[in-house]
Amino acid sequence: MSSNSYDYVKDAFAAPLGDFIASIGEGVGEAQAALDEGSLRQTLEIYNSDPDKSHETLKMLRDVGYQPTFYTIPKTTAKAKISLSISQQNTSGGVQNTRAFKPKMYATPVNASNTNKYNLGLNATAEIQFDIVPVPPSDTQIIRFLPSVIEKVVTNEDDKEVTEKRTFKEIKELLESYGLGYEIEGETEDSPIEDTSVFTKQIPSYDENQKKMIKADDVITLVV
Prior knowledge:
By secondary structure, this protein is of the alpha+beta class. The protein has 2 domains: 5-132, no CATH class; 143-223, Trypsin Inhibitor V, Chain A (2-Layer Sandwich). 29% of the residues lie in helices and 30% in strands. It has helices at residues 5-13, 17-47, 56-63, 112-117, 168-178; strands at 15-16, 76-92, 99-109, 125-132, 143-145, 151-155, 161-165, 181-185, 201-203, 213-215, 219-223. It has a 4-stranded antiparallel sheet with strand order 1-3-2-4. A 3-stranded mixed sheet has the order 8-11-9, covered by helices on one side. The relative contact order is 0.14.
């Protein structure tokens, strides 16, 4: 071991001050992500489930526009005793191989263990305190999977699942529950769209084996 115990502690445990603070912020971010995961799982279960196969409770929650609670860590205050040291970094210059020295500050956490073990004097330590505050996202929107808009799965008299067309009235109710808009393509004066009308195609198209993501306020095109 080096005769200079302070140098040994610095070499073994020191990290750039920015990295030291960032690592604490990363831990707070992981804790927030764990909270978000539970709330997001509930949201997806309600709004991404097949409306024709959803449990009655999920349908009811979706109909009333229920939003699961998202818990946040509004502010984290970190306070730590550290030993500060400055190291000179060698950088090569582009002119005549000149060298420049760039100082960089390092921080070493100070606790009873390393203070006693390495005889680190408290007169060489400092105390830092900083806040980690989340910045709320702007205009967040729920992201969902695109549903089958023009067709639905029903059970017939033989207790078999079959596909049938949704009426325009059913489509409007479905799109409203998803927070989606719509436009109609192919309507004519001779064939006006009524609540009982059905459609041949939706854009974007629906593929059971390849889910597509949509956002609230997206527009679905209904083709006559």
